Amino acid sequence: MNQAAHIADRYLAAWNERDPAARRAHVANVFAPDASYLDPIMRGRGVDGIDAMIGAAQQQFPGCRFALHGTPDAHNDVVRFSWSLAPGGAPADAAPLAIGTDVATVDADGRLVRVIGFLDAA
């Protein structure tokens, strides 16, 4: 698996983790301590802020799961990947609730330093 796909998979695993303690651990592993996240709807800063933001999104979309959409790519310290959000257990051909693209800067350890998200379809 290439580095971009590995980073995207870890990131989406944090968004999909429903257990609050396990999610917080995922966020701390995936994001740098002073990381920032910004998309058209929400923002978060630091591990605590990003964890709280993900928890709020999970409450807004109960039972929904994020999945990789397409193939991630990267150059230098920047990773770009797309995702889809659909109800858990939905048929593979079901239309997602949202599709987006995130662009992230990573540190030397592969942790996310800054994520900027875009909604491609909602």
UniProtKB/TrEMBL annotation:
InterPro entries: NTF2-like_dom_sf, SnoaL-like. It holds the Pfam family SnoaL_2. Residues 9-115 form the SnoaL-like domain. This is Nuclear transport factor 2 family protein.
